[in-house]
Design brief:
By secondary structure, the chain is of the alpha/beta class. The protein is built from nine helices and eight strands. A four-stranded mixed beta sheet has the order 1-4-3-2, covered by helices on one side. Strands 5-8-7-6 form a four-stranded mixed beta sheet. A hairpin with a 2-residue loop joins β3 and β4. α1 packs antiparallel against α2. The longest helix has 29 residues. It is flat. It starts with a helix and ends with a helix.
């Protein structure tokens, strides 16, 4: 539930209690003239004061809260987010990956100016960041200059449901400057490494039948794109 809504509900409850107790007090005062009146009046007075204090706290907390910060922190779903450093144009990078992962989306884009000290040390005038979601995973894109390059020590595995999906991702990633590798590995046009793997492949290489395992592993070493029919 939204924090602002909670604060508003608490304030509303406080106001209702205040008026209910106040009405009860006035009615008792008119109808009751016994010795208990003084005690009840003191009790109700303090109850009203407490309700007013609670309502004031709710109001002050609500008025000083930062809805933007709450919304931003609530939008972060992952404990760990991969960050990809590219040379430039974070938007173009996101658009490239969204053209491959069709159900993806760009969630954020920002441009920042570098401080003077950074520019004096050879840095660029500005840099960009973006957040995209592909394959239900959020990636952060940092476009901050040609200082670092991807290599095969980091790769992302695409678990494909069948050979047709393997074919699609393999062709899409290796086109327009991408590169085929061995054993199901390839690079996209930015040099980022991917492993395009049919999920049935893991059943083959972990089979209880040693002949199935041996054939799958042996034929894997001969292939670039994994061809499932040749691994069985």
């Amino acid at each position: 539930m939204n924090n602002n809504l909670i604060y508003s509900l608490l304030c509303g409850i406080g106001a209702i209690l205040f008026f209910a107790i106040h009405k009860w007090w006035l009615k008792d005062r008119q109808e009751t003239e016994n010795d208990n009146f003084k005690f009840m009046a003191i009790f109700k007075n303090w109850s009203i004061i407490i309700m007013l204090i609670l309502a004031s706290i709710c109001f002050l907390t609500n008025s000083t809260s930062n809805p933007t910060e709450t919304k931003k922190s609530a939008s972060i779903k992952q404990k760990i987010t991969p960050c990809l450093w590219v040379d430039k144009d974070a938007k173009a990078v996101v658009e490239y990956y969204l053209s491959i992962f069709k159900e993806g989306k760009m969630k954020e884009y920002h441009q920042y100016k570098n401080p003077t000290e950074t520019k004096e040390q050879g840095g660029q005038d500005s840099f960009e960041t973006a957040v995209m979601e592909i394959g239900d995973i959020e990636f952060s894109i940092l476009a901050a200059g040609p200082y670092f390059k991807f290599n095969e020590s980091i790769s992302f595995v695409i678990n494909c449901k069948d050979q047709a999906e393997v074919d699609y991702y393999w062709e899409a990633l290796t086109a327009n400057g991408g590169q085929e590798g061995s054993c199901g590995w390839c690079k996209d046009k930015y040099g980022l490494s991917w492993q395009v793997v049919p999920v049935e492949y893991f059943d083959l290489i972990n089979s209880e039948d040693p002949k199935v395992r041996e054939k799958a592993m042996k034929n894997t070493m001969k292939q670039k794109k994994l061809i499932l029919s040749e691994l069985k």
